[in-house]
Amino acid sequence: QDAIDRKEKRSETFKTALHGLETGTHPLKTEELGRRAPQWVRDNLVTMCMRCQEPFNAITRRRHHCRACGYVVCARCSDCRAELQYDGNRLHRVCRECYTCLTGHVVLEDRAGKPKGILEKGAAEVSGRSLLCSSLQLLDKNGKGGTRGWCVIPRDDPLVLYIYAAPQDVRAHTSIPLLGYQVRDLPQGDSRHHLFQLAQSRQLYTFVADTEELKRRWMRAMARSAAGVTHPEEGEDAESCDE
To answer: Model confidence over 168-186: pLDDT tens digits?
Structure first.
């Protein structure tokens, strides 16, 4: 019964966490850390540690949850334990950032002082202030297979398309400068897929959207970025990300 209760509680937590997907804010306010159970980020929403940005794997870098903030982190970034008030002040695994907030003790980081690279823009952060973001499939060069990714055009970098492996990743795996590209519509054909392309010189990217409406929105947004238009369209503030 205890396991059932905990699973139901987590399910509700996950539903609530998805509503905060488009914001780059911390799951809990700093003053709430340790006092209230966090909203856990789902494992399948990230492919890398939300603190150090190293990719997860099944052997040497496994997923863990910080019991204070709910982030998905690796073992190295969650090697601290702190008392959590919401669980009777018992010691729990927490990430280094939360450990510092809860105890006042600073844990030295290997990456301290290292500036962020161009791809190190958190997906959740940029999605919350984007011109457009959603899941798209990027086909391979043969146009047969491909992988789905979380695609974002940030408001503060409106001429670049960032592609993440998952919508809560803290680093993009690909960025495409859109300026000068041509946006091509492709017929659905027998496959009924909603296809469109970005083309420039020898560079060609073929995308698949889930719906025809989403395809048109992406074609419009990419065409504006390709033409160097940096301001949002009228009424674009009301658009939200498609999960």
So the answer is: 888 888 888 898 899 999 8
CATH assignment of 26-103, given 3.40.50.450, 3.40.50.2300, 3.30.40.10, 3.10.450.540? 3.30.40.10
The first and second tokens of residue 182, run together, are: 């041509």
- Asked whether the whole model's pTM tops 0.85, one would answer no
- Indicate the CATH number for domain 123-227: 2.30.29.30
